[in-house]
Amino acid sequence: MATRASGSRNTTSSSDADRISSVLSEKRRFAPPAAFSAAAHVGSARALSALRAAASANVVAFWEEKARDLLWFRHWKKPLVWKHPHAQWFVGGTTNASVNCLDRHLGGWRRTKAALIWEGEMGEVRTLTYQQLHGQVCKAANALLKLGVQRGDVVAIYMGMVPETVIAMLACARIGATHNVIFGGFSSEAVRERINDSGAVVLITQDATVRRGSFVELKSAADAAVKKCPTIRHMVVLSRCGIHCTMKRGRDLWWHDVVDGASPINEPAQLDAEHPLFILYTSGSTGKPKGILHTTGGYLTQVAYTTRMVFDLQEDDVYFCTADVGWITGHSYVVYGPLMNGATVMIYEGVPNYPAPDRMWDIIERHAVSIFYTAPTAIRSFMKWGEEWPNRHDLSSLRLLGTVGEPINPEAWMWYHSVIGGGRCPIVDTWWQTETGAIMISPLPGATTTTPGTATKPLPGIEVDVVRKDGTPCKSNEGGLLVVKHPWPSMLRTIYGNDERYRAAYWSEFPKSRNHPGWYFTGDGARRDADGNIWIIGRVDDVVNVSGHRLGTAEIESALVSHPRVAEAAVVARPDEVKGNALVAFVTLKGSAKASTALSEELRAHVAKEIGPIAKPEEIRFAEALPKTRSGKIMRRLLRELVTSGTAKGDVTTLEDAGVLERLRMQEEE
Ligand code: WT7
Q1: Rounded to whole angstroms, how far apart are CA atoms 390 and 421?
Q2: Which residues' Cβ are closer than 6 Å to ligand 1?
Q3: Euclidean distance between CA atoms 652 and 144, whole angstroms
Q4: Distance between CA atoms of residues 466 and 474, nearest Å
């Protein structure tokens, strides 16, 4: 069957039709290997259906049973209190995330099991057993307490992929501080915005991080950020690279000075189930990033359960999720999920093609990794680098593969399956979001027959549907909007400091009505096929998915407009073979400014400075004017069509000046 390497992810563009028909013709089916099913937690389609039906009959009782797998100081009084659109799970219960990740494993032989195997980009390897990780977390917790961090305070973490990042997160969780991890690839402007929005009192960072063989300074970026962060009282700096840092007296402290000498004994805080565990910023369709707030008991419950089931975790697995801890995947499936299950977690510091494009396969071989979880964009890069790289390595330790972040195109799925999985490993395509906190739609590897391109069906305890704008259910294969119909334990609780925006972004599309109690709108378009499998079509708002990361076009536009020469900007996406989508920015200039290649480079660098290199547009197109409606709204839909198909044939009746589009089109043909 012929499949395209990538399709449009924009529901509004004309090439959706092609994409839908291309996936509709997908006939390949992959049943779980018998030996895999025989040893799996859920080993047959029938067992999974029964589980799903039982959970559906009483969603709350189902999750209560899963919550019992955690350690609680005090049992909850009510499993769910739902006051639209706010959920509270396991109300009255008290627990602690770090206790569930660490202390609970110390009673038996697991205390000497490797919790983290870390590999630095330069090749160093450090292993921390559960006992050792616990000791480090207790020390860091005591150090934070000594710095005056109190329960409920926010601590920002701006670091790379080193064990201390995990230690810092768990130390916060231990004392009841709410962590706000800021991706180490963000610029100082982005760091400042996230610190100020969250009101963080301490920033934990490192001198520099290692990337592609060189040092990327984080401390100096942190210094620039906190110049305008009045709430920051201290900065704790890990010396990762041994480079010189300017330390501000009274404010800045070295990690080794405050942590190494601290006591390894720390009494964990007994925290309410609804105590805020972390804030994580993600892009939205308008303006500034949204601080997604997750709390403790419900989050831990669903993350622990999904890790065990979706990855069919067994005691001797070596589990490797390539996500950076700066994203939700790193929170849920590098740190909390696997550690709560007592797994051995592989973490890698650097880029996947350093010193050569086989770094991942080399790691898998040397550490006998058995579960590998990565993003479709990474898989497409691996494909491009060529199969000679994985073929140099013995990948027979692998038994399960996973993907997350965007729809996986069938060609990449097949490559992953045959070249990496040797045709023997099931693939779990997992759909979820920063907001959902944990996996929502996914196969169970011992039970589900998979088809390339679909995350299949909701997990037990999760009620999703594909509906029309008026809330009526879509017919099979009819495209519609993906909604969640019942509260789930790891759902976001609000947008930090902006509950109005929380209501508007997720709960206004399908408000409470006579027919239903109000549904959560995911922002994704989807369809359900005749077998009930869900196919994600893409985002329906002005949010684009580039390399598996969600970027708000509005945020990039406002970065562009903050440049002195730019008058207006509109950012849209076009399909890209490796990244899934590439960004194209249409820019109009102020008065005397002249378009040039140099200016285009300058604007790209400006976006990198304002947000980070991930947000850099692939292409800048200078325009005389942007297509607008009579009321002055930029018609991004037309620009999207223009960059994907070269023309804009859609409805242009609301366009104020038809000539604008004509001129943009001609520019395209030049
Ligand atoms: C958006 C969420 C969840 C961690 C990584 C991204 C898209 C995610 C899949 C998948 C198709 C997917 C959706 C979703 N997405 N996983 N398996 N198949 N699309 O987290 O930045 O919060 O983005 O990513 O559009 O809404 P995020």
Answers
A1: 10
A2: 282, 328-329, 404-407, 429-434, 455, 522-524, 536, 539, 545, 549-550
A3: 58
A4: 6
Please state whether the predicted TM-score (pTM) of the whole model is above 0.85: yes
If one residue of 293, 431, 456, 483 were mutated to test the ligand 1 pocket, choosing by the most ligand atoms within 8 A of its CB, it would be: 431
Q: CA 324 → CA 159, 185, 285, distances in Å? A: 10, 10, 23
DSSP 74: B
Nearest-angstrom CA–CA distance, 571 and 643: 11
Ligand 1: centre distance to CA 439 (Å)? 10
Q: Which residue has the least CA distance to atom 3 on ligand 1? A: 433
Tens of pLDDT, residues 281-302:
998 877 689 999 999 999 999 9
* pLDDT tens sequence across 559-571: 999 999 999 999 9
Centre of ligand 1 from the C-alpha of residue 406, in Å: 5
Which runs of consecutive H residues, i.e. helices, occur in 488-596? Answer: 499-502, 553-561
Task: For residue 243, give the 3-state DSSP assignment.
Answer: coil
Ligand 1 atom having least distance to the Cα of 549: 21
DSSP readout, 346-376?
EEE-S-TTSSSTTHHHHHHHHHT--EEEE-H
Distance CA 86, CA 621 (A): 43
Q: Whose CA is nearest to atom 2 of ligand 1?
A: 433
Nearest to 559 by CA among 625, 608, 620: 608
CA neighbor of 217 nearest in space, from 253, 172, 187: 187
DSSP 103: G
Q: Are 133 and 102 in contact (CB under 8 A)?
A: yes
Please name the amino acid found at residue 65.
E
Residue-range domains of the chain with CATH: 547-669 (3.30.300.30)
CA of 23 to the centre of ligand 1 (A): 18
Nearest residue CA, atom 12 of ligand 1? 406
Amino acid identity, position 250: G
pLDDT at residue 667, rounded to an integer = 66
Closest to 359 measured CA to CA, from 378, 375, 339 = 378
Peptide bond before 445: cis, by omega within 30 degrees of 0? no
